[in-house]
Amino acid sequence: MIELRELTKRYGDRVAVDGLSVRVKPGVVTGFLGPNGSGKSTTMRMILGLDAPDHGEALIGGVRYPDLSWPLKTVGALLDAGAFHPGRSARAHLTALAASNDIPGSRVEQVLRIVGLSDAATRRAGTYSLGMRQRLGVAVALLGDPGVLLLDEPVNGLDPEGIRWIRDLLRALAAEGRTVFVSSHLIAEMALTADRLVVIGRGRLLAETTVAELAAGDDSLEDAFFRLTSGTTDYRGVGAS
Ligand SMILES: Nc1ncnc2c1ncn2[C@@H]1O[C@H](COP(=O)(O)OP(=O)(O)OP(=O)(O)O)[C@@H](O)[C@H]1O
């Protein structure tokens, strides 16, 4: 369970996250949706203790991230697919992380298998494609066998096979009873992946609902999303005609 209580973050006079109160439940995939700049990444960074809230708090299983004894065993995160030492192999990277987080070395081979990198485990991460780096990021998130998973835009830049792989994996992890919170600005992808949706605009909660409920009142889920978020962006294009 992830619980956000009046979570608020300001950058200068801009409010990036504005009094956000949400409960993200275990056993289902919860999609975190909002237009560009609506505060999704900032919220995730606060849950992970990478940014400090100006007000409110983010709790994982009732505990603030900085107070967790072994964070990787409680919450796994995928924020930035490129964040690996390019000269290190996937296996070396995971082995070092396991050693410093009280995780048995045998778990490294397990997660390499889960993400399909066993055969590429000795290659330097710098030679990996975007899809392989994303898989290594997922391996890191799963290393501590955590009950809570947080993924920020995990399908960005992936090919259709990679997108389907992430989707199936997230659904399987939720079916095991884990809390899975995944951000995206792609409503169509979320419709296929998520059971529940948290929608924000300008850092504020716009809807906390199921995919089915949100789609019910409009012609499509996309229409429902545009209706909810219209007026919450600072940019607007004009039609081609
Ligand atoms: N370090 C920072 N300094 C100043 N402003 C920031 C910083 N990080 C985020 N912001 C601002 O906070 C707001 C929310 O940004 P955030 O990246 O959380 O949104 P997002 O929903 O993740 O967007 P996207 O979908 O484009 O990734 C934006 O207006 C952004 O410009």
From TrEMBL:
It comes from the Bacteria. One of its GO terms (molecular function) is ATP binding. Keywords: ATP-binding, Nucleotide-binding, Transport. SUPFAM superfamilies: P-loop containing nucleoside triphosphate hydrolases. Residues 2-227 form the ABC transporter domain. Belongs to the ABC transporter superfamily. This is ABC-2 type transport system ATP-binding protein. It comes from Micromonospora chaiyaphumensis.
